[in-house]
Amino acid sequence: xxxxxxxxxNSIINTFVAQMRDKDxxxxxxxxRRNLERLGEIFAYEISKTMSYSTKNVVTxxxxxxxxTFDDQVVLATILRAGxxxxxxxxxxxxxxxxGFIAAYRKTDKGNKFHINFEYAALPSTEGKTxxxxxxxxxxxxxxxxAYNKILEEGGKPQHTHFVCPxxxxxxxxxxxxxxxxxxVTVWVAAxxxxxTLKSYIVPGLGDAGDLAFGEKR
Length: 218
Description:
The protein has 218 residues and is an alpha/beta fold. The chain has helices at 13-21, 29-48, 84-93, 142-155, 170-179, 209-214, and strands spanning 2-5, 53-59, 64-70, 74-80, 98-108, 114-122, 130-134, 137-138, 160-164, 167-169, 185-189, 191-193, 195-196, 202-203.
């Protein structure tokens, strides 16, 4: 497994992350969703650099242009609901991708301990393809591991998998590195935060991404 932190290099991605974290700016849910979408577009552009390319002849009104285009078959999956704007951003660039959706969420019991409740998956075949899984935050890494394993079980083994997760904790990266050691997986992040609360919320983090994007749930 490989980890690429785009936030380590000075670029506009850090401006978008700063706005998403800011407790005053994030009151604007439309801007929050748009920033997630823009992050998805940036990650998609960077992922495109890792793909296999071949030259195609494109007929123009005046002649033929030789253009390198990627050959990978892309499957884009997301974990509902917070991942939807991020998913859309990636899809804006990989507009020919097949799409999959995972319903999995954190459920807290009376002792303030939580488990990941998996409900359903709607997935295309992923056998031999390039898989991109979009999930806004990696707190413990449990949700994305459940999604990844479910996709492999139902869709087949991808050629390579990219996790697109703007905000991660150190603990999640350590867990994924252990669980996915030697796997053809790249984790793309924009920030890696040092702490988790007792309820496994990322600190400094940004809060509940699903609520910020779509409104508070019951």
